[in-house]
Amino acid sequence: MPNLKSRPGLVGRQRESAQFSKLLAIARAGRGGVLVLRGEAGIGKSALLDDFCERATDFLVARLAGVESEMDLAYSGLHQLCIPFLGHLNRLPAPQQAALESAFGLRSGSAPDRFLVGLAVLTLLSEAAEKRPLACCSDDVHWLDAASAQALEFVARRLATGPVAMVFAVRDPTDRPGLLGLPELTIEGLDSADAAVLLDTVVSGPMDPRVRDRIVAESRGNPLALVELPRGCTGAELTFWHDRSHSTTPRSQRLERGFLRRVQPLPPQTQQLLLTAATEPLGDVRLLLRAAERLRIGADAVMATEADGLIALGDGVRFRHPLVRSAVYHAASPGQRRKAHQVLADVTDPEVDPDRRAWHRACAAVGPDDAVASDLEGLAGRAQLHGGLAARAMFLERSAALTVDRAQRVRRCLNAAQAKVQAGQFEDVPSLLGAAEQGPLAEGERAKVDLMRGKCLFAGSHGNTALPLLMTAARRLEPLDTRLARDAYLEALTIALYLGRLASGPGTREVAEAIRGAQSPKAPYKRDALLDALAVRFTEGYPPAVALSHRAVHAFASEELTLDEALGFASIAAATAASLWDDVDWDVLSCRYLQIARDTGVPSALHPALVTRILVHLFTGDLAAAASLVDEMQSVSEVVKSTLAPYGEVGLLAMRGHPELAEPPMRDWLDHLRTRGEGVGLSMASWARAVLCNGLGRYREALQAAREAAENPLELGPPQWALAEVVEAGVRSGEISVAEVGLERLSMMACASGTDWALGVEASRRALLQEGAAAENLYREGIERLTQTRMRVELARVRLLYGEWLRREGRRGDARSPLRTAHEAFGEMGMDAFAGRARRELLATGEKVPKRTAEASAKLTPQEAAIARLAAQGLTNSQIGAALFISPKTVEWHLRNIFVRLGITCRAELRSSLPTVYRPAP
């Protein structure tokens, strides 16, 4: 699937970056330098200037941009550049000061001498760069007024001394011949690999590889073409050339108008052939020639079309620019477009490409057409293979629109709405439900409308409104469709779990009671077993539900998952596994869930799958993998405009143990969660804070947070994990009675679960409340059991507890081994707070523990190491993001962590402070 990332600042451009680095280095050394960037419109000159300015972090930066409407205003562009430095005018020699003031209208008089104006600007910029080097960027120089351009060229040719770096961006040489002879760099298009990466950053969901290759080829590496044409489109819309796949930004409209001026004078047959080619998204030459033959367009007209230069026919049909295709298609009348679609449908082989043929027929339809609608419905599954779930939803939506029979149209509208929900396109669902309500609705169909409306409300963070709707829908469906009723109850239970303590109406118990009172299906699925287990849990308690829960979770982890099961129910199955302390099935299921979510290309499905996998990595101690997925989740959130709380990031910050980084966002998230009614998030955040504070030795704060997290013990995951934090923090803070109550609840659940993870945690926390041989045996049992699991973090924590107990028993020699092992494990995992706690205990045993220097203690994750290495080389956040396929904001977040780990405060200190193993090659 395409990378679901926010658009990086730059993709590729290593050659340009090297030139920028050289130019800035010259200026830092006290010498002047200049570079002229030349290239066609949209090739990325402005983005490169942005990058240049961002790299000049230790420079003063001055910018100007030529404006077409100001080309007749003398010195208007120069005024933009000099505004920040006008305070230095009084330092100029009197003639220069007078000339510049006259040029800028600051004094009356005759027109200034242009030589004096140029000399004045040179002096002014040199004065401005006296304390810090100066970077001057001039964009769209081809639109500068002539006087400004002449003055700037004068300055550029005289920058031999003085720490000033000047960069100009201009189109082809004829636009500004005066800049010829200066050092220049021709900006070319991205290569195919980089172009594909950039394209994927603005398209969500799978796209037919043939369509991607065609867009990349037509763009010729032009970033504007790659970004503007598909912006806001899904892969499905581009794959089938949907009407919505049309960029409407001012820049693209400007380019389209220019291309249309070349198309409109062409002969009608040439225009017809161009439109037909624009309507066919694959760029299939043989198909186009068959269409030309059907339209009775002769070979001469075909050759004339190619000779005009707007299109090329070779291995495929390639437009000169993707926006030519867009301009031709959208400038045509509806009737002309229908004719093009119809002829393409006529010449498309129904055996080879039935879904594309059906889509062309649908676009050619003048009004409702049951035959076409039926074809679309039948081929929606095949369309999914080319364009993902979004393509299936698109086919079903169009099928509904073309349906004549009202009852049939209602059914198809509901199916299309369901497909849109599954594809995460919730914004399209209300109109489909509204269309369905226009027709005669049976009782079951009314229930389906409520069901999908509830799902949309939940997606919009209106869980307390959505839950009653889903409950109503489930009750309506019970006598009509047992299978759908059960799925509606599971959706309702999911929402109730999400709301948690913030539910304002029915909660988990009420939903569970309704489930247990409903009829069971005759042929149960995996999700039915899960639903029954959860219903028992929330009505009878944790122990009676354990056996049922283990069987249900194991089925999800070991048996084949359908798409519906993975996207609809794997998340709650994984949460159930976590609440059982079932490390094996949790690990397997979370991995399978994430893979399926990635394969579908649905960003809204990817977010919860990433959270699930991040939590597994946190418990297994692979914080580097967790950090990488946090980056991916942040990028996905940017694409889908998600407002979900960053659960994975909360846990990662807690495990790393830096309060100055963790606590401010944790406070913000708690406020955000309460506003959204996200009770499950409150439990997660409280558990994370408890872990953070236990690691830091702030036990009273840890106890308060842990008790809040464990407030609703039947919720899935954090309330169970928090019980261990309650016991540890309670004992360490002297709240023994609170610790004993927490241990009683923990023991009840752990013994019922029976996993080594659960029993290992229980044994180690029970040891905290025991003495002598009983305590030691329990610590050893905990270590032995946890050694059999994947849970490296908990194993290291138990060794730490054991070592602390041994030291307090006066057995300092015995304490050193578990403490040393724990200290090393925490250091390797990057858990600095717990590593610090283990170090203090080791020191108390008399062990010599080296101070945590940057070389010894700055254990950077692979992602952090890569970022630090690139930053030390002088790359900007945008360049690092492009290189690592993460957003500049994510780079900034990592750099803050890196600075803390290395004990530095700015990028300038990176190269000298970076441990040798992470340093860039000289």
Give a description of the structure:
By secondary structure, this protein is mainly alpha-helical. It is built from 46 helices and seven strands. The strands form two sheets. Strands 2-3-4-1-5 form a five-stranded parallel beta sheet, with helices on both faces. Strands 6-7 form a two-stranded antiparallel sheet. A hairpin with a 3-residue loop joins strand 6 (311-313) and strand 7. The protein is flat, with a radius of gyration of 33 Å. The two termini are 37 Å apart.
Describe what is shown at a glance.
With about 900 residues, the protein is mainly alpha-helical. Helices cover about 65% and strands about 5% of the residues.
The first-to-last residue Cα distance is 37 Å
Query: How are the strands of the biggest sheet laid out side by side?
Result: 2-3-4-1-5
Put simply, the count of helices is 46
Calculate Rg over CA atoms.
Answer: 33 Å
Helix content: 55-70%
Strand content: under 5%
Main pleated-sheet profile: 5 strands, parallel
Work out the number of β strands: 7
What structural category arises from helix and sheet content?
A: mainly alpha
Low-confidence stretches: 1-8, 853-857
Average residue-wise pLDDT: 84
**Overall form:** flat
